[in-house]
Amino acid sequence: MAGDEAADRLYDVPLESFTAARNALAAELKRAGRDADAEAVRGLRKPSAAAWAANQLARRHGSELDRFLDAAGQLRKAQLGQGEVRSATSAERKALERLLGLAGEYAGEAQLPRVRQTLEAAAVDDGAARLLRAGRLERELEPGGFGSLLAATPSTRRRGPDPAAKRAAAEAHKRVTELRREAHAAQGEAHRRHEDWQRARNRADEAARRLAEAEQAAAEAEARLESK
């Protein structure tokens, strides 16, 4: 990617304007004799809808993103026995839901699971977190490896890393990552089912209201008929 500040600003423009803005910037750089920068800008890919929404979270809601990533870091430490897991899980979950609420301003309902996936990937991998914080994603992040947890694992400097312990930590983190992903997926499914239930309940209430009105109208018509 080009390091030019103007190129960085491309990720601020509306998604539908990205291609035109990128091509215009590349042409401007070409006219200025900055051929290498023009070529780099021309190679920038239009972000996916979910990646663009995640970029906007990083660019416009950086403090909320930092709180989420900090909460994720505290949860990783707690899972290693350096804190209380329940409260850390609750803090991370609340921060995540806060970001997903904000993401609704930039992404449709269909894109939110991919935004969630990107946030969850950043939560368990420091490299992914850095990419997200830069606000220049072209595609959603995928749930990744376990470098973050291993980096947080206390080391024994005198003896060096114990391969068996390292493997055990890796396996433990893999299991934690899988379970967290399942928990987040279940939470998302529960949220969707609740929304479906609420819509069905609203339809049922509306049908009951219309039935009551129809019954009232029928009763009034019958009373008028009997009175004649």
Strand share of the residues? under 5%
Radius of gyration: 26 Å
When the domains are counted, the total is 2
Ends apart, CA distance between termini: 86 Å
The 3D shape can be described as flat
Order of helices and strands: HHHHHHHHHH
The proportion of residues forming helix, as a percent range, comes to over 70%
In total, the number of strands is: 0
* Count of alpha and pi helical runs: 10
Structural class: mainly alpha
Mean residue pLDDT: 82
The low-confidence parts are 145-159
How does the major sheet shape up? Answer: none
Overview of the structural elements:
This protein is mainly α and about 230 residues long. The chain contains ten helices and no strands. Helix 4 (about 50-60) crosses helix 5 (about 60-80) and helix 7 crosses helix 8. The longest helix is centred in the last third of the chain and has 65 residues, at about 165-225. The radius of gyration is 26 Å and the shape is flat. The termini are far apart. The model is unreliable at about 145-160 (pLDDT under 50).
Features:
single chain; 228 residues; 74% helix; flat
Secondary-structure blueprint:
Blueprint: H1 5-9, H2 18-31, H3 35-42, H4 49-60, H5 62-79, H6 85-103, H7 112-124, H8 126-134, H9 147-152, H10 163-227
